[in-house]
């Protein structure tokens, strides 16, 4: 289910020497994929197709592309910039000879570094370029008692609910912070990342000061994560950079060092410069660094906002790297914080801010986001702004935060793969509805929705499996209320499947 961009982002982050496609498809089918690989890959691209697609003919497997046609398409690939070409299933020495004959005199195209800052989930890549990026901040126990309790109870359905709700509200990346005293953060972070990346397809920002938790999460993450964070202290850089170099990722660099946070924009630029230089020694390029010049509360220092904004401008101008900020820090201690947050966000965007850690449920922030994009020509014909303003851009969130699932359908819980919630809602429904009604009106329609999504390639295998597990939880609740029976069914049904199904 991975896109070419997601595959490229993850594998380049792991340090591969070349990337490409082998087997599965014929050369004509690869025509759709090769251009996207070439557009995004900073390493040589490989094309190694089959001799077309196989079919059975008189009891034998034959392929539908002959040697001449195969060679012609491979020449196209070489002219586009593919560095390594070959043949897989169905090709013979004749195919390879003809391919060499038509390509041997072509000039070799050198591979260029695409210089794109990119993070990815298992299914798609997110390029941090000209469009403002929203990082959902809500999976963080700081100041959130319900998140704290959910983490202490191991109630990951609640965490998944928050993730799904932020995705519905328009977040592009989800921040994941599970640090709590008296909990095993390594285990907690590993579980959170594993569960989240199955249910949502947004890239994750791994947010922790615990390097063991960070490494475990990066090892388990199926994609190229955003890693929050490294500072300008030598101890931090020595601990974090080897992890980024080993597992791949884009690292958030805080402009703070052993001496604290500089009180001038020039001082924060100097810290950022030192981080970028030090990262280069670990093989980490500037495109894989996002600098956070730190927003400090304006209530205790009225000049702090201006320093942060000037820092953004300087860092973008001098270093050419992307920038990020935690927007809500600016308003700490003030009333009506959303007003200050949204105004600061607007000015920061105009100053060049790329990524903002925000609450996507903040109407003021989202108004600023959509109106800024419309005014800067990023929203053709203002379609998205109009949709937002009319309320049509907000898809109905599947998940509510009530403890007993009130107001939420079992169908939605199964579609979203929420196992514990599916069991709770099913148990409550069965107090007033017959078991067969619950099965026919909730469980089966939910599986139909997921099945159609899988066929249409809007739902991928991990989500399909999570929905199946949620349905199994619901069936457990149904089974618990069914009356015992002594009848014996003499008929046998045999199911053939694979080990581990």
Q: What best-fitting shape do the alpha-carbon axes yield? A: globular
What is the radius of gyration computed over CA atoms, rounded to a whole number of angstroms?
26 Å
Widest sheet: strand ordering: 8-9-10-11-12-13-14-15
Low-confidence stretches: 394-407
- Average pLDDT confidence is 92
Name the CATH homologous superfamily of the largest domain: Dihydropteroate synthase-like
Distance between the termini: 19 Å
What portion of residues is helical?
Answer: 40-55%
The CATH level-2 architecture of the largest domain is identified as Alpha-Beta Barrel
What is the count of structural domains? 3
CATH topology of the largest domain: TIM Barrel
In the CATH hierarchy, what is the class of the largest domain?
Alpha Beta
DSSP strand count: 15
Helical region count? 19
Beta-strand portion reads 5-15%
Largest sheet: 8 strands, parallel, barrel
Q: By helix and strand content, what is the structural category?
A: alpha/beta
Summarize the entry for a quick read.
The protein is α/β, with parallel strands linked by helices.
Describe it for me?
The protein is an alpha/beta fold. It has three domains: 4-103, Aldolase class I (TIM Barrel), CATH 3.20.20.70; 118-380, Alpha-Beta Barrel (TIM Barrel); 410-481, Methionine synthase domain (Methyltransferase, Methionine Synthase (B12-binding Domains), Chain A, domain 1, Orthogonal Bundle). It has helices spanning 4-13, 27-30, 34-40, 67-80, 93-103, 145-153, 156-169, 185-199, 211-220, 234-247, 265-280, 304-319, 337-351, 363-375, 383-389, 410-415, 419-429, 435-455, 461-481, and strands at residues 19-22, 45-48, 54-57, 60-63, 84-85, 118-120, 125-127, 133-139, 173-176, 204-207, 226-230, 250-254, 289-292, 322-326, 355-358. It has an eight-stranded parallel β-barrel with strand order 8-9-10-11-12-13-14-15, surrounded by six helices. A three-stranded parallel β-sheet has the order 1-2-5. It has a two-stranded antiparallel ribbon with strand order 3-4. 44% of the residues are buried.
